[in-house]
């Protein structure tokens, strides 16, 4: 199912092939996710298409510097991040809070202890 998403100001927009009901969104307590309040679903790069904003994002990396925490340089919202699986598969971590028409009260979530990962 194709979903549309964006940052708050709309300069960064994307489409992603994602069934929100197939598995819960992850709520992580790592230093980054806890501060941003993201709810994440991971998809292969092939299921993601950036529609606008490639030049509008700032990349922040920390720790092992394996994840590109991208955020809109205008409104500051992180709609997705980029990384790769241990086998090298490129993935996107979608902040489902940035998808259109998502009711977080109806979305299944699962807590992950990223702080002690």
From TrEMBL:
Keyword terms of this UniProt record: Metal-binding, Zinc
Pfam families associated with the record: GFA (PF04828)
Alphabetized InterPro entries for the sequence: CENP-V-like, CENP-V/GFA, Mss4-like_sf
Single annotated GO MF: metal ion binding
Chain ranges of the CENP-V/GFA domain: 3-117
Protein family: Belongs to the Gfa family.
Protein name (database record): CENP-V/GFA domain-containing protein
């Amino acid at each position: 199912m194709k979903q549309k998403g964006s940052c708050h100001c709309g300069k960064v927009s994307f489409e992603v092939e994602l069934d929100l009901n197939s598995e819960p969104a992850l709520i992580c307590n790592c230093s980054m996710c806890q501060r941003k309040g993201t709810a994440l679903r991971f998809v292969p790069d092939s299921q993601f298409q950036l529609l606008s904003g490639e030049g509008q994002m700032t990349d922040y990396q920390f720790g092992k510097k394996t994840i590109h925490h991208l955020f809109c340089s205008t409104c500051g919202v992180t709609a997705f991040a980029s990384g790769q699986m241990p086998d090298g598969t490129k993935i996107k971590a979608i902040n489902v809070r940035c998808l259109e028409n998502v009711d977080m009260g109806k979305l299944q979530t699962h807590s992950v202890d990223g702080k002690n990962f």
